[in-house]
Amino acid sequence: MLRVRELGVDLVFAAGESEQWKAVKLRPPKLGEAWVRLQAGDRIRLRSQRAQVAPLRVELLCESELSADQSCLVELTADQAAPAASELQEIAFGDGHCAAAATHELAQLAANAGMHRVSAQRYRDLVQRWNRLGVGDRAAAAELGLAEQLLKAGEIADAERVADRAAIDNAKTGNAAYATRSRVTRAVALRRLGQLEESRQLLLATIPEFEELGERNEVANVHFNLALAALMSGNRPRFEFHLHSISQIDASALTPVMQSRIALARARGESAAGHYVQALSEQARAQSVLEGSAFRGDMAVAARNLAMTYLALGMHEEAYQQLTRALTISPASESPQRTASTLLVLAAVDLDNDRPQQAQRWIGAARQIYGQLRMPMEAATAEAGELALELRLGADPHRVIERIEGLRRGYPGTASDTCAALANARTAIGDAASALKTVDDESCRPGSLDKAIDLVEARALAAGVTQPQLAQQQLLAFAQQLSKMLGEASPGLHYAAQRRLTRLRSVWLQLQARQGEPGQSPQSVLEFALATHPLRFQADTGESPPRMSERLASPAIGTILLDADGNDSEVEDLANREILSRLARRAAENGSQLPSLSNIQGRLAPGTWMLVLLGGDTQGLALWLSREGSYTVPLPPLSVQRDLLARLLDRLRSPGTAVAEVVASARELSAALLTGAPGTAPPDALWVLSDEQLSGTPLALLSWPGAEAPLVETTNLSWITSIHDGPEAGAVEIRRFRASLHAIVAANIGNGAYAGLAPLYAATYEPQLIKASMPALELTTRSGAEGTAEALMDALKTPGAIVHLAAHGIARPGLLGYAGVWLAARPDASEPQFLSWLDLADQPLRAQLAVLNACQLGAGSETGNRGSLSFASALANAGVDQVVAATWPVSDAAAGTWVPAFYSHLDPERPDTSAAALRAAQLALRRSRHFRHPYYWASLGHYQALAASR
């Protein structure tokens, strides 16, 4: 037998003539050992995984002379599969080296499974075992393992103390790498205890030590921790410096796990800045570097992080896919704690998607896992979430109060997680005064924006028992304060945070119903609708909107609003909770200034009406505005409206559906949305404030109450997707200017055609049709290999441009990260480029008009209660004043009819005539022989930004 013992290197060996190099099995790394059976004449080759000089110990022994303890070690390092946990547990009951080695393996297995408290207990036992056996270096290594697991288990103070001792003990035993690693662990603990500068200095001191040892992966890990600390403290330059330092290290020297963590750090920085396209790209990279590796736990973490970004954007199905992947990669049997945390994210997705029963199921499963793992605090926190859902689903409030109070007595740390549910239960039993005291208690410090909204809702419901109007004003104040807080945020972050406020609409409408008639004034209804809308009010400065990446607030606003529960530092966590607490309690301060009712009315021409929809769980509300007046009308609940819309869209999936069936469904939806519409005759123009929850509505197909013909016959129709600063009402002048015209064509034909996409033969003729309709304008065409994403973005950034796009578009239902267009491939790629709406979220676009002749670019969410943006809405939100797009697949051949009709009715000096031009184009289709079915013309929609002063 050959016994090979590592002394400070990661050793690999090959026996006999085999070219298969194997790692030393028994842990800890750098101090492990291998027992190799040799045949006569065999040769053994040894090498370090890195080019460095380090000692190792080699002993040649006869197998017949081995002790029982040594024979046990031989079996542990045999070539067959690693022993099962049950077998290791049996071996660990002994007292010798083999039992200690088995315990070391069990400790690492528990760590890999996310059972950090169990792993810590095994490492604690292991320190004593190795010391009793006189193996000081392994005892010191186990001490480091104990410190790392205590840190991951959240026992920060103990982790700091043990890591300090481990650094001393590893230095005494001559293991410099472990001594330095212990100091890194202590530094991370100090950071989480709020001792930021001491932590930073300790980490900086470890860099040259690791460099001298040749531990480049550890150097990268230190920079990774320094980068995270910089991000949490809002120091963007320092964050970028450490990421740059990592990039200078040869990637081949980094483990896949470290490469994945670095990508996740970059993603976290981009998310904090609201740059979700870049964040998603980095998260995808974090997954790709782990593909095919054995690091299933890290792969699952990467998938879960990606799901959380999708959740922030309302992309529920993408989030589901990643969470399913995380659960499949690392099942509960392998990593129960990780599974439990993933189930809680799954519950958050279902809650955001208005599926409380399913969310309750996931939270209950997570609670059971935490209970089995003997993690009482985590189990109690999950139970708090269960109780909130039980109350929402109709549980007896007295029973909920009793259970919550019991939780709080047993686990005081659950106080902040139970505030909203306890207050709501007390309101439900008629004790509103106690409910208000509950939400205003100092213990109620929310850890995330969602929890802050929970508190705001609870306070409003309690205050609304006696003062519903005041409660509504408090909801408005919260929404305005959030908008004010987001003043410097990027559009992506603004959208991700602001879309959460649609939850407040149901509570606001309940309070409205309590007041009876007349309830809130139209001005108040408008203010609340705008304050809880994801649109972004932008001042017309002529400059690009501020980018959070250039100036990151401290603490990082993206972390405060979207990920406060994941804060790395207890001090940062307390600071963020204090900020959210103040935000949740502000009801009297003025927030961001939104346009007044009179200013918006002043933008409406005679004969134009604007419709603002508010949807709630039990009822809805419509606000009708014209230049002359305004009023409100009650509507059915949002669920009824969405069911009617889904039925209509289902019948519009094919031109083979009987027109009578389509018209019947359209009339049902019209009755739900347009009940109480003004007058008996349709208006000249109708503007509808865009609502994600009803974004797929074919306005052209709806009919005015009492009218037979669809609105396309009588009315110019438009969705209002964003608001920007404009002149005072009454000072509006018709703007005329010389527009530039750009056509981007990605027809997917010729030598560069991609087999996965159908050719668009008619698209190649669209520039000629446009030129024939507008001969006075100079047309710039980019087609074939020039029809790239870069060409489209350049055109959209051109001030005053009219941009026509002919390409393949797609919006897979529920997968709105895939709402976008396929454009020509880059020179170094074989597949076409996909430009998603996410790519537009943080772009300053300046075109006046974008005409998108591509499928489904006006589509929003069809599956969720709060979906993500459509491509058309994203364009308008990013700065394009007018957008024309289709909600479902359009006919390539139909473009020959509607494109020339559109441009022949468009005043090139007034792109604001595009709504009227679109109606003319739709009528041309409706009155044609081949495209008269609503499938062809009802898909097209108009989207615009509204200019209104504050």
Shape: globular
- Number-wise, the strands total 21
What is the CATH architecture annotation of the largest domain?
3-Layer(aba) Sandwich
Oligomer kind: single chain
Helix content: 40-55%
Structural class: alpha/beta
Number of discrete domains:
5
Q: What is the alpha-carbon Rg in Å?
A: 32 Å
Question: Could you explain how this protein is built, in words?
Answer:
The protein folds into 5 domains: 2-69, no CATH class; 81-228, Serine Threonine Protein Phosphatase 5, Tetratricopeptide repeat (Alpha Horseshoe); 468-590; 597-718, no CATH class; 741-947, Rossmann fold, CATH 3.40.50. The chain is 49% helix and 11% strand. Helix 4 packs antiparallel against helix 5. The longest helix has 18 residues, at 196-213.
In summary, what is this structure?
With 950 residues, the protein is α/β, with parallel strands linked by helices. The protein is 49% helix and 11% strand.
SSE blueprint and pairings:
Blueprint: E1 2-6, E2 11-15, E3 22-23, E4 33-36, E5 44-48, E6 56-60, H1 68-76, H2 85-92, H3 97-112, H4 116-132, H5 136-152, H6 156-172, H7 176-192, H8 196-213, H9 216-232, H10 236-247, H11 256-272, H12 276-288, H13 296-312, H14 316-329, H15 336-352, H16 356-372, H17 376-392, H18 397-410, H19 415-428, H20 432-439, H21 449-463, H22 468-485, H23 491-498, H24 504-515, H25 522-531, E7 537-538, H26 557-562, H27 570-585, H28 597-602, E8 608-615, E9 620-626, E10 630-635, H29 638-651, H30 659-673, E11 685-689, E12 716-724, E13 741-745, H31 766-773, E14 779-782, H32 789-796, E15 802-806, E16 808-810, E17 820-823, E18 833-836, E19 849-853, H33 871-877, E20 882-886, H34 895-904, H35 914-926, H36 934-937, E21 940-947
Parallel strand pairs: 7-12, 8-11, 11-12, 12-21, 13-14, 13-15, 15-19, 19-20
Antiparallel strand pairs: 1-4, 1-6, 2-3, 2-5, 8-9, 9-10, 16-17, 17-18, 20-21
